[in-house]
Design brief:
It contains 23 helices and no strands. By secondary structure, it is an all-alpha fold.
């Protein structure tokens, strides 16, 4: 049979119809049931790379993404940027990450523009010490502000658009130390207050506090009680910025030890919690805890803070927002249990999701927060085993 087909196709070529031989061969393949290979399109390859990234298969993801990047696919560069900036990636590289996001941003990709701005903050929340050369690539506060303004927009609803950029803009204009001007700051804070979905719900409460402080309502003695729910949210959702936002302005206004708050007030507990989580700089120029309280009082303050966190973890036991605190309960009787609760006040969404990876992943119909990569990163960021933070 094979000899017959070779003779037939040879005869067709000899008679001056070379194209017919090829067509005839193609028909033969279909008739004989032989498979016909088809190359996967860019979207399918991109989704495959995204899945590899989620599954911690970095080499496979990188190989696909580099090919797609060479083809000019902006979303591939976004995923490459995620990879090079990821704390779990052995080849984490600041220059490569910024470069990948820069290529995607050149085409107007919103996520890339946001991550370029966010690259200013990476070293602050993932223990990433930059070299002198890398530090030179780090965006200035002004550059970050310009990028975020471009992505967040001025009048866009807080419930639409790139929510992470709006939250970061509000953070930059308040905690970030950049003077955005009164009008832009008010606008940014309002956007931050209105974000109420996904990861960012837990870290929006601080902007409600800032808005109250700026409005002058905090000067009324009764208004202080209004901060308690926000501080509780800060404890439960593990956001030390909430505690700092509510307490730092008051501490800076103290004129002497006679004005010190009581050790059992939220002003003392909030400051203690914030300082234990690296936010002591927010209290520069103010009296210190040690100026107001004795060593015995400070010890009781720590006991009270641990007790508050313990209580909140129990109350919110069925709420995923308290997962960070409940993680410590794997070794409830360990001597380090209290330290675990206090040290857990680090919001893992910054390092493990770059604030916006889950939203970006929705286009691939992949639930990133259920991925192997996110689970492992979160466990490391939250210090499990206890106090073992490898990132």
């Amino acid at each position: 049979m094979g000899r017959f087909w070779r003779l037939v196709t040879r005869d067709w070529r000899c008679e001056g119809f070379p194209g017919l031989a090829g067509a005839f061969a193609a028909i033969l393949l279909l008739v004989s049931g032989s498979p016909v290979a088809t190359a996967a399109g860019p979207d399918a390859r991109l989704k495959q790379a995204a899945q590899h990234f989620a599954d911690l298969e970095d080499d496979k993801a990188k190989a696909i993404l580099e090919d797609l990047s060479a083809e000019g696919l902006a979303d591939a560069d976004v995923l490459l940027g995620y990879l090079y900036a990821d704390p779990l990636h052995e080849g984490r590289d600041y220059k490569q990450a910024v470069g990948a996001f820069g290529r995607a941003a050149a085409s107007g990709n919103e996520e890339a523009l946001f991550q370029l701005a966010e690259s200013r903050f990476w070293p602050e929340y993932s223990n990433w010490t930059l070299t002198t050369a890398e530090e030179a690539l780090r965006p200035s506060p002004q550059r970050a502000f310009e990028l975020l303004r471009g992505v967040a927009g001025k009048q866009t609803s807080g419930f639409k658009g790139h929510k992470a950029s709006k939250w970061r803009l509000a953070h930059l204009c308040t905690f970030g130390g950049y003077d955005c001007g009164d009008d832009v700051t008010d606008e940014a804070i309002e956007m931050g207050r209105r974000i109420a979905f996904d990861n960012l719900r837990a870290i929006s409460a601080s902007f409600h506090i800032i808005a109250d402080l700026r409005s002058g309502e905090a000067e009324e003695s009764g208004s202080m009680r209004g901060f308690d729910p926000y501080l509780a949210l800060g404890y439960a959702d593990v956001d030390p910025h909430v505690a700092a936002a509510a307490t730092a302005p008051v501490w800076r206004d103290l004129t002497g030890v006679q004005d010190c708050p009581s050790v059992d007030e939220f002003l003392a507990r909030g400051r203690f919690l914030a300082e234990r989580n690296g936010l002591a700089g927010h209290y520069t120029g103010s009296l210190g805890l040690e100026d107001c309280f004795s060593s015995e009082q400070l010890e009781s303050l720590e006991v009270e803070a641990v007790a508050s966190l313990d209580y909140l973890a129990r109350v919110f036991d069925n709420d995923t927002r308290s997962w960070h605190l409940r993680r410590c309960y794997h070794e409830r009787e360990a001597p380090s249990f209290g330290d675990c609760l206090l040290a857990a006040v680090h919001h893992h969404f910054f390092a493990c999701t770059k604030l916006s990876i889950p939203a970006f992943y929705k286009r691939f119909k992949i639930e990133y927060r259920l991925s192997k990569r996110y689970e492992e990163c979160r466990e490391m960021m939250l210090g499990y085993p206890l106090l073992l933070n490898k990132i």
